[in-house]
């Protein structure tokens, strides 16, 4: 827990230093639009856009894995019920063999 707090403080300090060092105005042109903004804002927006694009790219695979896990859990429950039924049947058979009801006397 302490390590995570220290790491967060260090990363925050580095980000603050980065923002101060890259505060100059920069003009961005994209698809006929242009605007002036501090370089740090442009870099952070670019990074955020990349994070969102990565999340959207991973999303379909995540849904597919989630559905597969749900199907496997359902199958596991069915198989566990079958195993339990077979074990009960085995115990009943074992009890019947130990105490046979029909004894043939000669």
Summarize this structure as a short list of keywords or feature phrases:
106 residues, two-stranded antiparallel ribbon
Q: What features would you describe in this structure?
A:
- By secondary structure, the protein is mostly helical.
- The chain has a domain at 2-70.
- It is 75% helix and 11% strand.
- It has two helices and two strands.
- The chain has helices at 2-21, 39-98; strands at 25-30, 33-38.
- The protein has a two-stranded antiparallel ribbon.
- The longest helix is centred in the middle third of the chain and has 60 residues, at 39-98.
- The chain starts with a helix and ends in an 8-residue tail after the last helix.
- The model has no long low-confidence stretch (mean pLDDT 86).
Low-confidence stretches: none
- Strand content bin: 5-15%
Overall geometric form: elongated
Count every helix, treating DSSP H or I runs of 4 or more residues as helices: 2
Number of strands: 2
Question: Any idea what the radius of gyration is?
Answer: 33 Å
What is the helix fraction of residues, given as a range?
Answer: over 70%
Strand order across the largest sheet: 1-2
Determine the N-to-C terminus distance: 80 Å
Could you outline the blueprint of secondary structure elements for this entry?
Elements: H1 2-21, E1 25-30, E2 33-38, H2 39-98
How would you summarize what this structure contains?
The chain has 106 residues and is mainly α. It has 2 helices and 2 strands; from the N terminus they run αββα.
